[in-house]
Amino acid sequence: MTAPLCPKCDRPSRLTRGREVYLHRADLREKPFWLCDGCGAFCGCHPNTTASLGLPADAETRNLRQRVHALLDPRWRMAANRSEARSRAYAELGTALGLRNRDCHVGLFDAARCRRAIEFLLG
Question: What is the pLDDT of residues 109-119, one digit of tens each?
Answer without folding.
Answer: 999 999 999 99
